[in-house]
Amino acid sequence: MKKDKDFIDDLLGRMTLSEKIGQLNLVTPGGETLTGTVVNTDVADKIRAGHIGGIFGIKSAEAVRVFQDLAQETRLKVPLMFAEDVIHGQKTIFPLPLALAASWDMDLVRATARVAAREAASIGIDQVYSPMVDVCRDPRWGRIAESPGEDPFLASRFAEAMVEGYQGADLSRPDAVMACLKHFCGYGGGMGGRDYDAVDLSPATLHDVVLPPFVAGMRAGAGSIMASFNTLNGVPMHANRAVITELFREKLGYGGLVVADYTGILELIAHSVASDRAAAARLGLTAGVDMDMVSETYLDTLEDSVMAGRLDEAEVTAACRRVLEAKLALGLFDDPYHRLDWGRAAQPILTAANRQLARQAVAAVTVLLKNEGGLLPLPAPDSGKIGTIALIGPFVEDRVNMNGTWAVAGSASTVVPIADGLREAAGNALSILTAKGANIVDEPWLATRLNVHDWKELSVVIDTRSPEAMIAEAVAAVSVADVAVAVVGEAREYSGESSSRTDLSIPEPQKKLLRALKATGKPLVVVVMTGRPLALAEEALLADALLVAWFGGTEIGHGLADVLFGKAEPSGRLPATFPYCLGQVPLTYAHRPTGRPTPGRFEKFTTGYVDRPDDVPQNDGLFPFGFGLGYGKVAYTPPRADRTTLTGDDRLDVTVTVTNLGDRPTLETVQLYIGDPVASISRPVKELKAFRKVALAARATETVSFTVTVADLDFSIAETVTDTRRRWEGGAFDIHVGPNSCDTQAVRVVWDGPQFEGNRT
Ligand code: NOJ
After folding, report:
1. 448 alpha carbon to ligand 1 midpoint, in Å?
2. Does residue 242 form part of some domain?
3. Considering only CA atoms, which residue is closest to atom 7 of ligand 1?
4. CA 45 to centroid of ligand 1, rounded, Å
């Protein structure tokens, strides 16, 4: 008979305090040293002693079996739970999370998570530390690469899709893994874009911007969340009882497991809220953090704290219950080996179907920012229209960078490099000349820093040739080619954890290369590899066609060839604003209006910057949120509302007609935003509320419909993080529809409802 909650009650009743505390200890057996803490090196002994509840960072089925065997020798045989940082794929690496969000295709997102779950489960992994759903509006932050971008609505849909993909319909199935929503919460808003830095935000912003994806992920059934490293309004999240327990658990109804982030409990000392390890452990546990990752402060101190009367044993029991319930949900009490056994039979790793999905994903996430004269797609290789392509740049033969950051189990050896993909597509019909053209960066110290996370292969290797010699070689190749395709951008570890930047430009050696390629006069396609929004003003001028390919993972070569030769449509739309320049960030389309909204060159006292030219919007990005072109050209009618006056719980139907004016099929992402011109608090100028990715045949017209309800109009009135309510206020609303957050057309409706003129209460 399947084990149930009665079994957990019985088990808990038989556990000693020490055994319960053991379940709260989450370790990694690796030998690395991070944040000054020596990673656990005596894992086997501790498992035997009942001092470990979960292990993460495991890379093989053999290791899982060995450790689980040890757990099965303990008095109560409580199974271990195994976790891993599976962020955008396990072995089949998909585009970065930021890129997957750019697909605006939640079926695709769900499918990538499903593949990742099957691959991870097959080696015995029970839980993945994903999805990361930190909304981020500051591209200096390196971890924006792991996030779904700047918008809470898009991030919420992403959270749901990822959770559904990982967990499937039944978490106890051997090919399902537990999702972990992270980092809870506010982590995307660190001061100055610096990792781990303090976050100060209003309770209303917390509820309207930061929390929605966590709530959406929770409602989709996420089994766990991970606390974040930052302080939130002065309180470190690992000690934040108000937000974790009082708000998320008690008020919003979260019933799952909470894990610490790496040494996050111990770091309460560095955050200066705990005087010693014992105090840190008590603070963490009573805040609601069930498992202590790596720091072992729970293991070392909680028993003494209970014995000394400084901690109620009930807190330990409650946390232990949640660990055991997670294991129960995962089916581990029925069979601790069931994922391993299934995986051995199913062999789901790096299958042709997985690779095919990764290949499709590349086109779906790639964002076309400019396509002068319809340069893209390039003529099909066998069309005879072009004979030679010069493929230039430090990434064209590269494998190591292509997986991007946080691909811990991914391998460079399985990556299809861009040059291979293009050569394969070209066959004998077309010649592909390649040249490196520039180093990713020229500074040795910077290369060393960018390689700091590389334990297998270096991602930045400086060529000893002079920059001039490399550029000359590239220019020579371009001069005999019909078209130049330059692949430039960031090294993979320019983004990711502890990888913030003070500059959002493509590194200078590569900019010099682009200038030289432009000077040849040949048509120039620029493909940008990046883990964050970059400031691409110069590249947008130099390039005839500009594509953002992010880091595309295992199948980047094939996927990019599909895009360049038009076998697939680049259908990504930006999940975060790309600024003109660094000084504009943080930046979002969903900003609140100011009292001085119209910047102009010689106008005094308006919002904006004195050193920005007048011919560019001062406070908007170069490429707005939601922006992306396709290979078709799509025209929109203004949105039509089925009525313009509504009351209470009415539903509003909004339709728009989109027409593909082009001669080839295209994919269009129709976006609906709502603006609230008068409310009791100043509301963002527009907020995304719905979107639909539609396939349009050549010359086809489609009508796209959306339904708007009062649930799309509400916002938070929040005095404190817990004293908060959502409400909607009657009045006028502008319903915008368009291809991105900027180029919308609107219809105004008046929705009769509660009135709170100038009155927040
Ligand atoms: C630290 C990171 O912040 C988190 O995202 C990750 O899951 C853990 N380390 C475990 O590796």
Report:
1. 22
2. yes
3. 129
4. 25
